[in-house]
């Protein structure tokens, strides 16, 4: 008879992981520590959703079956112009945070209007996040121009300078949304402040072709010419990539955020994941906003990433389960510059953890737990979430958010937007 394999336990003190050891050793080391029985469950690092527009949960399902250009110009932008406000962003962000926490995401990157409201909601919920303030030349709901956006965004960064959970990033929408001078200012300030730059880059073939026609080079080449391809840059989407631009990303140390579900749903193409990984580029996963996904479940996103990589490469061995899980955890942390604190289970790192119940009909028998996590419905199996060692979700129930209130507000916005459509 074979002996039962040792089961490792994990000890947390304050905000940090302080020990990982076999069960008996850890029990002897911390005899009086309170314990949580998670029999049949797996404890792993919380997921990192490296790109999204959180408040857009309130627009889920309102813009379907359109390519990106029409999706934005005919549906999303008109709806936003009539409805974006501080209350919209507050309610929509809370909804997104609830959805992500319940499905295992402990760190998220947000990019939307009224970032001060998003940051406040995230802080109250106890979620770790990078909040990008939007930089756009033309007037919008949050700023009259890029100059105002810089002023408000830098003030927000000062407010959260020493926050343990919230980090503020520069959020230029794209290379085409700012003038060359504004892009150069973004790069200069980001370098001076050692702050991230979160930017949509090469989201569609049309974007790349229009850039070539207008300025004679791709957006990636343009940003590089301005000195803007730096390790702090997080390039989102990257669905079109020639060899020269791949070399630029690889040699400059830029991180790429792969949003497979959104890109596929909008017919925008796909990020060449295996080529990027082959060149050593840091790659993370993001859900994008709810209207183009339509879920913020990062477990579902990583499954899509695996299937897409295998279909494109016609290779059933592409992106094995452990590698996919790494993209959604440590890969995301590295892309956001947070890997010294989160993304893996290591002594000394922050205790951002999730527990996933594998004693579910769709998971059992879990011969290979990593495969069950990647190819099952693991987002719906999350039972517990801890961030900075604090319980945020317990037995599937959010502890820092009022789920009933959040869903009631979501229904209020559904009715309001429905009335608006009917009266149009």
Number of helices: 15
Sequence of strands across the biggest β-sheet:
3-12-13-14-15
Largest sheet: 5 strands, antiparallel
Name the structural class.
Answer: alpha/beta
Rg, Cα atoms, Å: 21 Å
* Full CATH superfamily name of the largest domain: Metal-dependent hydrolases
Termini separation: 73 Å
Number of domains: 2
Strand content: 15-25%
The string of secondary-structure elements, in order, is EEHEEHHEHEHEHEHHEHEHHEHHEHEEEH
CATH topology group of the largest domain: TIM Barrel
Number of strands: 15
Describe the 3D structure:
The protein has 424 residues and is of the alpha/beta class. The protein folds into two domains: 1-35, no CATH class; 47-335, TIM Barrel, CATH 3.20.20.140. It is built from 15 helices and 15 strands. It has helices at 23-29, 68-83, 86-102, 115-125, 146-159, 180-193, 205-215, 219-225, 243-252, 260-265, 273-278, 298-313, 321-335, 369-375, 403-423; strands at residues 8-13, 16-22, 41-45, 47-49, 105-111, 128-135, 166-172, 197-201, 233-237, 255-258, 283-285, 353-357, 382-387, 390-394, 397-398. A five-stranded antiparallel beta sheet has the order 3-12-13-14-15, covered by helices on one side. A hairpin with a 2-residue loop joins strand 13 and strand 14. Helix 3 (86-102) packs across helix 15, helix 12 (298-313) crosses helix 13 (321-335) and helix 13 packs across helix 14 (369-375). The longest helix is centred in the C-terminal third of the chain and has 21 residues, at 403-423. The protein is globular. The N and C termini lie far apart (73 Å). The relative contact order is 0.16. Residues 1-5 have low confidence and may be disordered.
């Amino acid at each position: 008879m074979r002996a039962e394999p040792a089961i490792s336990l994990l000890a947390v003190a304050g905000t940090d992981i302080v020990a990982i050891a076999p069960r008996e050793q850890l029990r002897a080391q911390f005899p009086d520590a309170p314990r949580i029985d998670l029999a049949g469950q797996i404890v792993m690092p919380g997921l990192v959703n490296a790109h999204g527009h959180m408040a857009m949960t309130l627009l889920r399902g309102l813009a379907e079956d359109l390519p990106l250009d029409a999706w934005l110009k005919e549906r999303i932008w008109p709806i936003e112009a009539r409805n974006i406000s501080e209350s919209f962003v507050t309610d929509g962000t809370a909804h997104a945070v609830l959805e992500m926490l319940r499905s295992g995401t402990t760190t998220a990157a947000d990019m939307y209007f009224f970032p001060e409201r998003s940051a406040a909601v995230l802080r109250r919920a106890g979620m770790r996040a990078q909040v990008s303030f939007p930089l756009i030349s033309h007037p919008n709901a949050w700023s009259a121009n890029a100059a105002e956006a810089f002023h408000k965004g830098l003030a927000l960064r000062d407010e959260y300078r020493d926050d343990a959970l919230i980090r503020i990033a520069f959020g230029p929408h794209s290379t085409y949304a700012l003038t060359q001078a504004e892009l150069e200012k973004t790069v200069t300030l980001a370098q001076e402040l050692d702050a991230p730059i979160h930017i949509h880059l090469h989201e569609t073939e049309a974007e790349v072709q229009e850039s070539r026609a207008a300025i004679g080079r791709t957006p990636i080449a343009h940003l590089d010419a301005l000195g803007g391809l730096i390790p702090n840059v997080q390039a989102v989407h990257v669905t079109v990539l020639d060899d020269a631009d791949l070399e630029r990303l690889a040699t400059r140390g830029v991180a790429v955020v792969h949003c497979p579900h959104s890109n596929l749903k909008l017919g925008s193409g796909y990020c060449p994941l295996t080529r990027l990984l082959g060149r050593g580029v840091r790659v993370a996963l993001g859900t994008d906003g709810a209207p183009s996904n339509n879920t913020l479940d990062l477990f579902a996103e990583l499954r899509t990433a695996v299937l897409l990589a295998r279909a494109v490469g016609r290779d059933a061995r592409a992106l094995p389960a452990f590698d996919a899980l790494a993209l959604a955890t440590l890969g995301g942390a590295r892309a956001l510059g947070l890997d010294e604190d989160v993304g893996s289970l290591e002594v000394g790192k922050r205790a951002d953890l999730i527990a996933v119940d594998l004693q579910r009909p769709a998971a059992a028998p879990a011969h290979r737990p990593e495969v069950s996590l990647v190819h099952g419905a693991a987002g719906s199996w999350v039972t517990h979430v801890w961030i900075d060692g604090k319980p945020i979700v317990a037995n599937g129930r959010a502890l820092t958010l009022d789920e009933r209130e959040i869903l009631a507000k979501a229904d209020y916005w559904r009715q309001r937007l429905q009335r608006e459509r009917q009266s149009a």
